[in-house]
Amino acid sequence: xxxxxxxxxxxxxxxxxxxxxxxxxxxxxxxxxxxxxxxxxxxxxxxxxxxxxxxxxxxxxxxxxxxxxxxxxxxxxxxxxxxxxxxxxxxxxxxxxxxxxxxxxxxxxxxxxxxxxxxxxxxxxxxxxxxxxxxxxxxxxxxxxxxxxxxxxxxxxxxxxxxxxxxxxxxxxxxxxxxxxxxxxxxxxxxxxxxxxxxxxxxxxxxxxxxxxxxxxxxxxxxxxxxxxxxxxxxxxxxxxxxxxxxxxxxxxxxxxxxxxxxxxxxxxxxxxxxxxxxxxxxxxxxxxxxxxxxxxxxxxxxxxxxxxxxxxxxxxxxxxxxxxxxxxxxxxxxxxxxxxxxxxxxxxxxxxxxxxxxxxxxxxxxxxxxxxxxxxxxxxxxxxxxxxxxxxxxxxxxxxxxxxxxxxxxxxxxxxxxxxxxxxxxxxxxxxxxxxxxxxxxxxxxxxxxxxxxxxxxxxxxxxxxxxxxxxxxxxxx
Length: 479
What we know:
By secondary structure, the chain is an alpha/beta fold. It has one domain (8-383): Alpha-Beta Barrel (TIM Barrel), CATH 3.20.20.240. The chain has 19 helices and 10 strands. The chain has helices at residues 18-30, 42-46, 69-75, 94-107, 124-130, 137-154, 166-171, 175-195, 200-206, 217-238, 268-281, 301-316, 331-353, 357-363, 365-383, 410-425, 429-444, 450-458, 463-474; strands spanning 8-10, 12-13, 35-39, 85-89, 117-119, 158-159, 162-164, 208-213, 251-255, 286-288. The strands form 2 sheets. The protein has a 5-stranded parallel beta sheet. A 5-stranded parallel beta sheet has the order 2-3-4-5-6, covered by helices on one side. β8 (208-213), α10 (217-238) and β9 (251-255) form a beta-alpha-beta unit. The protein is globular. 48% of the residues are buried.
């Protein structure tokens, strides 16, 4: 059974400045990448402009800083928005980054109906594993569902959420826990959308997922297969949706960053290849392969190119992409799939008994699972019960490390702060004040906040200012 097409080949980019990231996008597209994926820096993720005191030392370090519409314009300069799929890794401030993209499309006279891409927008896993939240859980869910409703009206080809097991797996959970916690979160989003009168037929067609691929080759393949079967039954049995297209598990996969080692980093090329192959054999529709040097720092251009070439060799030389489920019927894979599905279903039932994913997260249940498993895993590595090549077995002294590490010039942060300060100085305070008041009123009421966010973006209000306005209404989350 032939698929008829390959997965979307991606490498995440974002560091230094929007201009530097744009150069990386253009380079990778020239090298055959078929979609772009944006990683944002920590201040942007949490909702601070680059000139905020709490952003000091973090600007551009783990992603690209975007504080205003001009930044988004620079980031996507020369990128045809109606032809290239854009993925944005952003959660707490996802609605604001989407508003910048919408404002940019309007500025360029690109129809919103032509925009293709994915907004991560998965806030529950932030409270569980990543901690880059800003608002409390319930108001955060309101922003998520406002994005759903807006995209269903204006952006029918856009994926408004990517429910992400990746970060929970990277934090330490098992393959079973990754599947169960992720699908439990997806159930919560569907139920919240239904409670607010959302279109579940639309959402079930556009919801996407994001998984990690780790080193246990057959377990990872079985994990993807089990997740597909589970999601199909959830859509049918829990939500009463019979359309097979709505039951498809559409997913992106990234190779496991936590599996990479800074000792003998050349070994990471083998790990990434095994993980990427497992993702393809498991049926991924979108794939990111990590660079060999990502345990040391941001990927260099050379390591990013090699990671892309790894995908291309699998795609165009190996033949494994020709068949939809090449290991279907393999006794080992089928047994593992059955086992993973059954164990994940048990954990979903336990989460249901606790009141669902939102209540379980408020109780700290998934957080505790992950912390305990991460501790057990580290103890096994330290005891030598779990082999990590080059770390606790087959080590060799290679002398001083010679791997080149990508570093961000600290002068870029100083320049960036000056640019944002200058941008703010050019605006009309009365206009931005009126727009922020409109946003605050929408947040206090029941109106969808997306229209107000887009108006703020077009009127020069910065990300940090929008977040400050929403914080006045929603408050801030404190553990």
